[in-house]
Prior knowledge:
Layout: H1 2-25, E1 32-36, H2 43-59, E2 63-67, H3 74-81, E3 89-94, H4 95-103, E4 115-130, H5 139-148, E5 153-156, H6 162-174, E6 179-182, H7 186-194, E7 200-204, H8 205-214, E8 218-222, E9 248-256, H9 261-275, H10 278-286, E10 290-291, H11 296-317
Parallel strand pairs: 1-2, 1-3, 5-6, 5-7
Antiparallel strand pairs: 3-9, 4-7, 4-8, 4-9, 4-10
Helix pairs in contact: 2-9, 4-11
Amino acid sequence: MKNTFGLFFKKIIFLSVLTASSAWAAFPDKPVTLVVPFAPGGSNDIVARQLAKQLTAQWGQPVIIENKPGAGTAIGAAYVAKQRNDGYTLLVASSTFTMAPAVNPKLPFDPVKDFTPIAMIGEVPLALAAKPNAPGKDAKEYFEYLKRTPNLNYGATGVGSIQHFAGVMLSQALGNNMAAVQYKGGGPAMTDTMGGHIEFSIGSMTQVLPQFRNGTLRGIAVTSTERSDAAPNLPTFQEAGIKGYEIQQWWGLLGPANVDPKIQDFINASVNKALKSEDLIQFLATDGGKTKPMSVADFTQLVHGGLKRWAAVAKQTGISAQ
Length: 322
């Protein structure tokens, strides 16, 4: 009798392992959704759509973009955190994912416990985009204008977003308390900057370069420590007199907590393969970005390290959700 029960339970365990193995081996056997926590038109959305094309071709399954903007990316992130951890719903995260928790301790998720970092996509500097008729003949004069002019405002994409941090860091460097106007995505913020409703926005090069080229926005400076090959005429913030200023945008994929390691590795390998495609490399390079293949472990370290870094910056600058 004992042997019979022993064999029965061994079969149950074997079948469970076989079923789990078959599930990941068949991945993906249905459409995969990439959730973008911003409105269409921002850099996350643009990059996600390019990556989706590559993954669709690799997997033979549709990779769908679903925009869930609002609350500084919290709506989209919270949605993904509650989905099944089978790899079919992924968050297109950015630097903002590591920044928002630093200013909002009441987020509806835990950025460490509720997510699985899976794959890095790439990175790009930000650039300050001013309204077309902005004053000053160069970046130094424009920053002097910002420094001496009261009651200025700028566009950000939610409290604790990278644009918000970038604006607060600039305000502190200039000694002028400029007000952030929060939008649901970089696209709407740039539209209001073009219309002169706000003074400027700081957005990724991927998003703002087309507007710089067609003259609907005026490029002032880039946030990296070196000039961008995509816009070599734009000085860095540091060259324009903002000492020590540096911030860059990254994008990556995260799943809900406890995604099967084999699915993590499969998605990571697929993304890294996509990042080596000339189409994606050239797409990002055209607008100042670059692909950055990374292992699951290295990307996890980047995300968790970023959470600590921006918590320290928030404390130093006094940025908060209030």
